[in-house]
Amino acid sequence: MNFEIEKAFCFIKNDSDWLKKLLIGAGMNLGAFLLMLICVFAVLFTRAFNVGGFLIAVLPCALFLVAALGVYGFTLQYGQDRIRNENAPLPDWKDFSSFLFTGFKACLGAWLYFIPVFALAGLSFIVQVSAKVHGGADSYTIASLVVNSLYNLFYLIFLVFYFVFNASFLKDFNVFSFINIAKAYRMLKGCWKQYFTALFLILAVGVVLNIASIILVLTIIGVILIPFVFLYFQIVMMDITAQFVRIEEESKRTTVEE
């Protein structure tokens, strides 16, 4: 079983309501974002730095966060459905509360996964400050070079393997899948080639998304379309992730049969 990149981009064929569902998701993100900007700028320009002004600025930010988590959960649910059924349609927005919870769990899991990176960043800062205070300029320069190099290498390794933990989470929506190393290793075992192929495809899709965003931001209409385009590409990336899981599961079944 190989990756079918065209299916990732043509998921709309499996759902006659795809446009409506994408517009709802993009509209929620765009509406909440615009409301947040309006309220924040209103507080800044009127200089209403009091409890009322604080609430006016914070509540729309919270609304935007809820919308973003819900939309992210929507794409995750599609990914899980795609694992179970290669012709799965997009989820129905009536399950928004479930999407919101799923998006929250995914973000919490990602935070747990990157805790070692955060800890190393803090340690790097302490080492550099200590070298600057107790040593000379040369000590600080050497310490900064060594510590930053180690941190960047550590961070890169975590980024490379984040995808498999995200794929692991997609299978069961268990927040601890992000830190279940044994489960992630079982997924990778015998599927290294497919894993790095999926990683390359997702990076390529991300590059296309960035190029499209740069072009769209040049016009007002393009800016309005960015949430729609972003959601479309987010679903494409989730489809590729689901395909990797299907390939991994098929590989395991083939191995057992042999």
From TrEMBL:
TM region(s), chain numbering: 22-45, 51-74, 110-130, 150-170, 191-209, 215-233
InterPro entries: DUF4013
Keywords assigned: Membrane, Transmembrane, Transmembrane helix
Signal peptide boundaries: none
UniProt-recorded name of the protein: DUF4013 domain-containing protein
Organism: Candidatus Limenecus avicola
